[in-house]
Amino acid sequence: MSDRDHYIEKxxxxxxxWNAEIAKMKARADEAEADAKIDFRRQLDEMRAERDKAEAxxxxxxxxxxxxxxxxxxxxxxxxxxxxxAFDSARTRYQ
Length: 95
Prior knowledge:
Elements: H1 3-31, H2 34-63, H3 69-92
């Protein structure tokens, strides 16, 4: 497996972890009281939005030509850090 393939697989695995965390948070939201449900659903929406951004960036990374790989990877890493921080922030508010 090339470094590029390994990098992409690692990013896909992280998104899958986020999907699992979103599912867990949704289950908690379903069990919560009415006021808490509103907050949980808002957090879920934020988490899904960040996950969707990550998936879009991963698609860009996967589709990048060999020539553009380094530039796209650099942009991906910056975006990934921002997306990860936003996702983690949303998740920790309700754990």
